[in-house]
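Researcher: I'd like a candidate sequence for this fold, 265 residues long. If you have to choose between options at a position, lean toward the conservative one.
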């Protein structure tokens, strides 16, 4: 074998040794890219994590419950291909996560009481839907809560019955939606209320939920932890680091193990 041929052969052997390593790096980067794309696609269109920040849905959902929200279920917007996908219409009793229509649009979670065209009223703390009393086994009442007229009777009969805790835009608009003592839900809007009826700032006080503002429906509690709010802790700004470290240390004891992986209804 000539010296030139030997050099070529050695070069080919060295190249063959480098190729698997280069291929492994390339495959790793490709897999990482695909994973990132799928994760972004999933959180954008299919599922998203959500944490319950307030007691308005107790006892169904507690402060510190971490949920997975199905963003795909209510995705239909009237396109021809909607019928080919597993979408469904929003139903009475569905729990929904949505963008609040005011105050920088934080996400809220409530239960759907009224659909477009429904007539709703509250008489002596009882909800009536289209003239029939609504059965609400999920609702709790707090006899120690301060008196709130909208908790007993709704909607207001005239401007003099409007409440100070109403969103100003809703206070100016609500009487336009009242007919014969009932509030009528407009097209593409929904009336939503919290299960913790005496401690829920909901559609009674700020108005309807727009269909396009609905992010999805919670399906499962994947983790639940008793937060500092549950214990009446001090929430000064200068104590956030201590609270964070304390939460990590006491995470096992504060985790509500019995609530984990429970379906949301």
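Model: Candidate sequence:
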């Amino acid at each position: 074998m000539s010296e030139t041929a030997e050099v070529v052969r050695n070069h080919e052997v060295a190249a063959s040794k480098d190729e698997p390593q280069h291929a492994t790096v390339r495959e790793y980067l490709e897999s990482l890219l695909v994973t990132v794309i799928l994760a972004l696609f999933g959180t954008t269109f299919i599922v998203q994590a959500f944490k319950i920040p307030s007691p308005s849905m107790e006892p169904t959902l507690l402060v510190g419950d971490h949920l997975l929200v199905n963003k795909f279920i209510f995705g239909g917007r009237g396109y021809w291909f909607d019928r080919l996908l597993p979408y469904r219409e929003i139903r009475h009793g569905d729990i929904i996560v949505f963008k609040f229509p005011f105050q920088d649009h934080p996400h809220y979670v409530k239960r759907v009481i009224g659909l477009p065209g429904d007539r709703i009223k509250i008489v002596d703390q009882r909800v009536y839907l289209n003239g029939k009393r609504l059965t609400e086994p999920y609702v709790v009442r707090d006899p120690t809560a301060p008196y709130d007229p909208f908790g007993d009777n709704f909607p207001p009969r005239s401007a003099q019955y409007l409440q100070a805790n109403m969103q100003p835009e809703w206070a100016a608009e609500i009487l336009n939606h009242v007919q014969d003592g009932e509030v009528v839900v407009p097209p593409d809007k929904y009336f939503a209320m919290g299960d913790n009826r005496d401690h829920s700032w909901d559609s009674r006080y700020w108005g309807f939920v727009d269909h396009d503002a609905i992010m999805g429906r919670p399906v499962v509690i994947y983790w639940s932890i008793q937060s500092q709010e549950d214990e009446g802790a001090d929430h000064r700004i200068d104590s956030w680091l201590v609270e964070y470290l304390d939460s990590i240390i006491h995470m096992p004891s504060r985790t509500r193990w019995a609530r984990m992986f429970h379906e949301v209804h």
